[in-house]
Design goal:
- Helices cover 39% and strands 15% of the residues.
- It has an 8-stranded mixed beta sheet, sandwiched between helices.
- The longest helix is centred in the C-terminal third of the chain and has 21 residues.
- It has a single domain, classed as Rossmann fold (3-Layer(aba) Sandwich).
- 43% of the residues are buried.
- It has 7 helices and 8 strands.
- It comes from Hungatella hominis.
- This is SDR family NAD(P)-dependent oxidoreductase.
């Protein structure tokens, strides 16, 4: 059974991705940030040992390291890491900027650093949920500085990881989920083009598929189109 760790697994796209991996027979380690939120616990109870909830705050280095230690006690190898945790909708002041970057940009970096030792003998796939908001060449927004800048930095971060790790057999997926009716603003959005379950189904297909062009890093979207980033 292949294994995956998903951050931001409590709700929205992250939770829907956990459902997708379960349906396709994967062992899921679900990064749990909101123990008071019941959906993830319900998924675990219905799936038994196929889903394990792992306490995780992607913005905290010690929490990430503790999560990696827990998984290392469960398995000798992890096939895939999906970085889905993200926040947005905060004011563009210095405090908010720091909070957004700690989750959206530094969170994936912490995760890769902590979990890479577990991935050396598995599928070696690193996946990142990004956004068109981080694309410089097609930028059209006039606000949301913190969120947009955090995703631009994430895209460069993934590019640098690709440059360093692709030669060692690691493959990468960079995904733009579209305008999702998710929880980025703190509560379930009523506007957007996609439900989390819709974009998660496409994300799973892209994350799990084998590509003949693993030597090229691209950002793909929910319509299976490539985006400049």
């Amino acid at each position: 059974m292949k294994s995956v760790f998903v951050t931001g697994a409590d709700r929205g796209v992250g939770f829907a991705l956990c459902q997708q991996f379960v349906e396709h027979g994967w062992k899921v380690y679900a990064g749990q940030f909101m123990p008071e939120w019941s959906e993830l616990k319900g998924l675990q109870e219905s799936c038994g040992e196929q889903v394990e909830m792992i306490p995780l705050n992607a913005a905290d280095t010690e929490s990430v390291r503790a999560a990696a230690d827990i998984v290392a006690k469960r398995t000798e190898s992890l096939d895939m890491l999906v970085n889905c945790a993200g926040i947005g909708g905060m004011d563009d002041d210095r405090v908010a900027m720091r909070a957004v970057f700690h989750v959206n940009t530094l969170g994936p970096m912490r995760m890769v650093e902590a979990f890479l030792p577990l991935m050396r003998t598995g599928l070696k796939r690193l996946c990142f949920v990004s956004s068109e908001a981080g694309s410089i060449s097609v930028a059209h927004r006039t606000d949301s500085f913190a969120y947009c800048m955090s995703k631009t930095a994430l895209n460069m971060e993934v590019r640098l990881m690709f440059n360093r790790l692709a030669k060692d057999g690691y493959s990468f997926r960079l995904y733009h989920p579209g305008w999702v009716r998710s929880y980025m603003m703190g509560s379930k959005s009523t506007i957007g083009n996609f439900e989390p379950e819709e974009t998660a189904a496409v994300a799973y297909a892209q994350f799990a598929e084998e590509r003949d062009w693993e030597d090229v890093l691209v950002m793909t979207d929910v319509s299976n189109e490539c985006w400049p980033f």
